[in-house]
Write a structure and sequence with these properties.
The longest helix has 14 residues, at 54-67. The strands form two sheets. Strands 8, 9, 10, 11, 12, 13, 14, 15 and 16 form a nine-stranded mixed beta sheet that branches. Strands 1, 2, 3, 4, 5, 6, 7 and 17 form an eight-stranded antiparallel beta sheet that branches. By secondary structure, the protein is of the alpha+beta class. Helix 5 (165-176) links the parallel strand 8 and strand 9. The protein contains eight helices and 17 strands. Helix 6 crosses helix 8. The protein has two domains: 8-124, D-amino Acid Aminotransferase, Chain A, domain 1 (2-Layer Sandwich); 132-290, D-amino Acid Aminotransferase, Chain A, domain 2 (Alpha-Beta Barrel), CATH 3.20.10.
Length: 306
């Protein structure tokens, strides 16, 4: 879906016009993929725009950078404030937020250590990633022929730019096959995650999700949903899942900042059906939470205007 321009992008401490937010063609990360990023959302609330779990996201950005041995030139606190400033300046009530740290121009070759580390933050209005119909009725999934990378091949715990080539290959395969999204198995044949989302199934009233050891990213929305589900009284487990666990699930859904909470209607043409009761309750509570309507989770919201 095309980007909707906003006014300013934060680049290394300076707010620049959207059209002037450029980098050199010999930027190191463009050639070798060694950058890290986050996907964050701000939502309209009765107190103005609020960023969902902003500090947690920026901490993960720092953790991802550490895994790639990148020294970020800004603290967590500085990037939190820079994000709020960027939301305020662009006068958006709800938006998607993309902080990215990358290796800039000045060195070339496989040794990234001498390269300058650059940081940018952009915000823009962005609707539902998998479509309004997907949120309402569920999406069709395909088990990808591409496998989730082994953590000893790439640090899959990091949100690294180059690591997502793996996800892009699976996404394109699914779309060209007529599906909405793909499921990636790891090299042991266990369910890992979707291309940019964590995955949950409901089996006999128990909510189950793959453990991080299966290659799943430690998603912040994943953690939020697990907390919400437990508070709603559901049993939640991290279990190794096989593709047959998806085929036989009573309910299934995806979670992620971009996707939010999206039911799964089919996997490999096996019909799971309309979104079930647990999926709906979790989805409704999540959307109420991000809009500031659930006092229990008020501390997950960081208001851009103070």
């Amino acid at each position: 879906m095309p980007l909707e321009k906003t006014k300013k992008i934060w680049m290394d401490g300076t707010l620049v016009d959207w059209d002037d937010a450029n980098v050199h063609v010999l930027t190191h990360t463009l050639h070798y993929g060694s950058g890290v990023f986050e996907g964050i959302r701000a939502y309209p609330t009765s107190r103005g725009p609020a960023v969902f779990r902003l500090t947690d996201h920026i901490r993960r950005l720092h953790d991802s950078a550490g895994l790639l041995m990148m020294d970020l030139p800004y603290s967590v606190e500085e990037l939190v404030e820079a994000t709020k400033e960027t939301v305020r300046v662009n006068e958006v009530e709800g938006c998607y937020i993309r902080p990215i740290a990358f290796l800039g121009y000045g060195e070339m070759g496989l040794n990234p250590l001498p390269c300058p580390v650059k940081v940018s933050i952009a915000v823009w209005p962005w609707g539902t990633y998998l479509g309004d119909e997907g949120v309402a009725k569920g999406v069709r999934m395909k088990i990808s022929t591409w496998r989730r990378m082994d953590p000893n091949i790439n640090p899959v715990a990091a949100k690294g730019t180059g690591i997502y080539v793996n996800s892009s290959l699976a996404k394109v395969e699914a779309l060209k096959g007529g599906y909405d999204e793909a499921v990636l198995l790891n090299t042991n044949g266990e369910v890992s995650e979707a291309t940019g989302e964590n995955l949950f199934v409901v089996t006999d009233g128990v909510l189950r999700t793959p453990p991080l050891s299966s290659g799943a990213l430690e998603g912040i929305t994943r953690h939020s949903v697990m907390t919400i589900a437990r508070d709603l009284g559901y049993e939640v487990r991290e279990d190794v899942l096989l593709r047959t666990d998806l085929y036989l699930a009573d309910e299934a859904f995806l979670t992620g900042t971009a996707a939010e909470v999206v039911p799964i209607r089919e996997v490999d043409d096996r019909v799971i059906g309309d979104p079930g009761e647990m999926t709906r309750k979790i989805q409704e509570t999540y959307f109420a939470t991000v809009h500031g309507e659930v006092e229990k989770y008020a501390d997950w919201l960081e208001h851009a205007r103070g």
